[in-house]
Design a protein that fits this description.
- It is built from seven helices and five strands.
- It has a five-stranded parallel beta sheet, with helices on both faces.
- Strand 4, helix 6 and strand 5 form a beta-alpha-beta unit.
């Protein structure tokens, strides 16, 4: 397993981004945490971020956002980035709806590693960090 260096939060809810950033900082204050408010901004961020320094290892992706939602992001992400790039990013779909159908749909995408229900907490982030990063 690799070390977690950077997280990208993709959610149109500024309060959710603020709280998630707070919880992440509680666990590791040295992590770089970036936030964007829709899938289009996330694609643009991933296209322009300096690879080694700020490339997110973990991407927390909301399903329901304006401009480009999480599902649309995944379609563009699949086409735009190569396998080497995608192999280095753990995508966790975040949803307010805790349904088996949403989880099944998300996990059927080869780029999604996990799902989580809003709101996240420091405990939920700790579980994700321990599961995917050393």
């Amino acid at each position: 397993m690799r070390k977690l260096k950077s997280v990208l939060l993709v959610d149109d809810d500024e309060t959710t981004n603020f709280l998630n950033k707070f919880f992440i900082r509680q666990l590791d204050n040295d992590l770089t945490v970036n936030t964007v408010t829709n899938g289009q901004e996330a694609i643009e961020f991933l296209e322009t971020v300096p690879y080694e320094k700020h490339m997110p290892c973990l991407l927390i992706l909301d399903t329901n956002m304006p401009i480009m939602n999480g599902w649309e992001f995944l379609d563009v992400y699949e086409k735009k980035f190569d396998e080497k790039f995608k192999k280095n990013v753990v995508i966790v779909m975040l949803t307010a709806l805790d349904t088996e159908e949403v989880a099944k749909m998300a996990l059927s995408n080869p780029n999604v590693r996990d799902t989580a229900q809003k709101p996240l907490s420091d405990l939920k982030f700790r579980v994700l960090f321990n599961k995917y990063f050393s």
